[in-house]
Write a structure and sequence with these properties.
Strand content: 25-35%
Bound molecules: biotin
Number of helices: 5
Order of helices and strands: EHEEHEEEEHHHEEEEE
Helix content: 10-25%
Amino acid sequence: MNVPEPLFTGKNTIYFQQIDSTNTYAMDMISKTNPPEGTCVRTDYQTAGKGQIGRYWQSETGKNVLISYIFYPHCIKATDQFYLNIMSGLAVINTLSLWIPEVKIKWPNDIYAGNKKIAGILVQNVLRGTQIKTTVIGIGINVNQILFPADIPNPTSVAIETGKFADLEKIILWLSAGLEHQYFLLKKHSFDIMKMDYLNHLYRLNEWATFCTDTTGDFIARITGIDAQGKLLLQLENETTVSFGFRELTFKI
Ligand code: BTN
C-alpha cells in the first residue's frame, strides 16, 4: 500500500527524545504561540503521560506512537465538541485497520482490538465563547510493546495482535492523513457521515451486555447510539432508553 502524503497534518513536527507529556507541551505551546495548523508534538518516552480522567498513560521507550496534534476548528461550536472525539477515533481506527482486521471504538474513544485496549486518545479543547478555539488531540498507540505492567487493564499492541513488529513512521503517516481527512469532513459539518462511521465501528453496538454505575450497580442493557452531545444511549431490558455521560458508566467485560 502506498503511504499517503498529508497536506499539512504532521508537516511541522516537534520531536523530543523524552518529555513529560506531548499534550501538556502542545497545550502550553498554544497558550504562548501560534503554531501552524496540523503541528504535532512527538516523543519516544513520556515521564508524565496523561490519560483520560486524570489517569496516566504508560509506554515503553521508543516502542509506541506518542503524539499530539494541534488544530484550530474555529467553525465548530462548543456544543459539537464530541465530533473531535469522533474525528480522532475514526482516524485511529482507519489507520489500525490497515494492520489489524478487527478494531473498534469503545465509547467515547478508546480503541480496542477484540476485548483489549490498543490505543487511547485524549482530546483537550480550548473554547472561545460558543466556539472551539484550539484542540489538542493526543494519541497513544501501542505498536511494538510486548510486555505491559500488571496494573494496565487488558492492554494489547499491533505486534501482539499481528505477531510482527510494525513501522512507527508508516503508522504516523497514515494517522496524519486520516486525521486530515476527518478534519476536512468536520469543517464541512459532515456530521451525519462521521456519526454513522463512528457507530459502524462502535464496540458492543446493539449487543446485550452488563454495565455498571455508582448509583445502580450492575445492569444489563445494549448500546443503541449516541445523542447530539455524544452521550451514550443504552436501551434497558424494560425497553426504556437512558443516556450516560463520560465517567458515569463502566463497561463490564
Ligand atoms: C486514555 O486512554 O486514557 C487516553 C490516553 C492518551 C495518551 C496519549 S499519549 C500522547 C498524548 N500525550 C499524553 O500525555 N497523552 C496522550
